[in-house]
Amino acid sequence: MVQSAFAFQTDAFASPVPALLYDEVHWYACHTRARHEKKAATCLEQRGVESFLPTVERETLWSDRVKRVAFPLFPGYVFGRFTLDELARVLATHGVVGVVKLRGYPTPIPCAEIENVRRACRVASETGAETDVEARFPTGVWVRVTSGPFVGLEGIVIEARGGQRVRVGIRAIGRSLDVVVGTATLEPISGPS
Question: With contact defined as beta carbons under 8 Å apart, do 139 and 156 qualify?
Answer without folding.
Answer: yes
